[in-house]
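Dear support,

We are seeing what looks like truncated structure output for some complexes. This example has two components. We would appreciate it if you could run it in full and send us the complete token output so we can diff it against ours.
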Amino acid sequence: MKWDLILSNSFYTAISANAVAYILVASGLNVHFGYTGLLNFGQAGFAAIGAYSLSIPINRFDWPWPLSMLLVVVMAVLLALLLGIPTLRLRADYLAIVTIAVAEIIRLFLNSVRFTWLTGGNDGLQGFTRFMENINPLPADGITLWAQKVDGYRLWLLMIGWLLVAVISTGIWALMRSPWGRVLKSIREDEDAARSLGKNVFAHKMQSLIIGGFIGALGGMWLVLDKQSSQPQDFSTTLTFFCYTIIILGGVASAKGPIVGTMIFLFVIQFVDITLQQATRTTPQDPTPLIPTWIVDQNNFSQIRYIVAGFALATLVIVRPQGIFGDKREQAFDVR
Amino acid sequence: MGPRDEHTVTQRRRIGLWTLLVMVAFSFVAPMFGARATAAETPPSVGRASGGTATGVREPGVQATDDEADIVVSVVEQQRTDDVTVNKPLPGVKITATGAAGPVTGTTDATGKVTLTVPKQGDYEVVLDTASLPTEVEAGPDSPTTFTVSFSSGVTIGSGAKTVNFFVGDTERAAINRWELLPQTLVNGVKFSLVIAMCAIGLSLIYGTTGLTNFAHGEIVTIGALVTFWLNQGGPELHLLVATPFGVAASALMAGGFESRIWRPLRRRGISLTSMMIVSIGLAIGIRYVYLFFFGGRNRRFRQYVGDPEIDFGPFGVTPRDLGIMAVSSVVVVGVSLFLLRARLGKAIRAVSDNPDLASATGINTNRIILTVWLIGGALAGLGGVMLGAATGTQWDMGNIILLLMFAAITVGGLGNPFGALVGAFVIGMFTELWTWVFPNVVELKTLGALISLVVILLVRPQGFLGRKERIG
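Here is the complete output from our reference environment:
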């Protein structure tokens, strides 16, 4: 077992550009669920919209990247309006079912053979990250952090990614302390009370959906920038549910919750995964793996992390619903 | 912290412990069918078994290892007219893959597919043996019978399986009137609707009596099919009809276990419905990947009722299997409806569904009713799972795939109303199959028909067909 490799890789994963993407997607969800009490199960749809609004125009139509990023914003707002107008007046579980359905519609569309000419289908799109490589001032061969090699492109993404996280998180923190943010929280606590004070509940919910959706789209964009490939299977509902795990881990309705939650979540998931990978590995010199193959082998070890993630979510909600660092008064679980 | 709080903490720990125990229990129970299931052989792998001279022979059914890969070949006969293309799978066609490691030969099964397993290196020439085609089918001039597949030496994501599709048939030959396809589409829609209805009634009853949106319902559907599969293909090799009751029992037990070990203690603690919904999501993800861990990612078929010829009914044809599925599920659905309407217990269930407090005040033991609902709902889901497995194959995430359709069905029909689930299932099932009729070129998006209908119906009539207005909030 190469513990230095396992630990350094797990630590790196917890702060990588991939982690930045998860933080952003989860932060958007936190605005919806944590602060406003909207049960959005379609955050993966926002992330997918962000990812493909960047990759399709650049890859297929040679748009300049700033225009493409503008499209990310526009599409995220449009999706929020599309979801919000029919469902925000209904009860919370209707929003849940419609959002999950729309997110699946988006993923099925992106995955379809028929529209491969546009979306790349199952293989996805590549080669849309050249602009990011071009503006990268860091040397391409990158650096070695402990035992983990990081190339220049990923290091650059990581650095501006964390800058983005700092801006967004501070923004959310400031917004939620403002009178506007307090209205959101009051909607979460008691919608009728907020309405009786003359607040436009629908408009506030819609604004929350737009802002959270926009942040989620940014996260999806970062996800595919890091992978240098946008593929539909990255935007299944599992992504949404992992983000729920993350914000519950880190603390619901807290600006630093998604950051802490993502770091813990990705560290644990990666640690479990890479440890098992090492422990099930065989080499010609040493044909017997550390763990007997009847328990777990090369082909199925990678499922363990999902099993851990799923049961962790269930156990967390039961044992500590406000999250590890959350404030009990802020937990949003009593939405109607 | 008062004594009351401490009590809650212990209770909370206890429930948390139970969640973990469920997980551990699964890890012990699942290998019983998982490990054997991998040793069982399934029709799509016939090719590997018959590839006697192949170097790629390995223990049948085992997933491709790192240095081996699957070439999934499918042969379809195309009948094309101006506005519609019909693809018919061709069984019994000989396929040979020749490459660095000698030829591997296989014959396509009833679904027109065959999987050839070859060492993952270099190029392979996949050739269709035109002599083995049915006499009336010709390989058209513009349909190639040879493909080259190459495996790169680098790391591949996923199983690295390659797909080869052969399209044969005289493209000018059959003139098909689209309207002639409609009866078949409708029959398929009825079959699919009935299966969804079976699975969704339980989900609706559970929502009605407890208010819980149970995301783990798909996993209850899957366990029925998995246990049946193990009894049928793995260990005892029972006939499918004999194995089915055990699968149904497994689903009912799992549902009952959920209720008595997780949901009832959580309700007693007064935990909110949203939390319970998220707990069910976590359980669903965890259990689903336990299935994948033990069962593998392949779609497997039961031993019986595969590739039977269709019975011709004139405008449409139905296999005996599908006829059986439709007959049994119609009987069960009608039976459950009569039970809910007429039987004492059924009335009690509807009373609890209407107003739990009032039902409790009239002397109905609510907790017992809720447990009954879980057992009935679980059993129905299990039966639905077996039928789905018989129709489309058993797969680790089959329940999760139709979960969204089940949700759509109960939402469209009216949340909490079991008859609404029936209506909704028919709307969703028909929309799904009709999509394939209206857009025959985009069949892979057929779920879209159902999901779009869900969104549209919610826009027009938010409470669903049979829902009550006050429920929509």
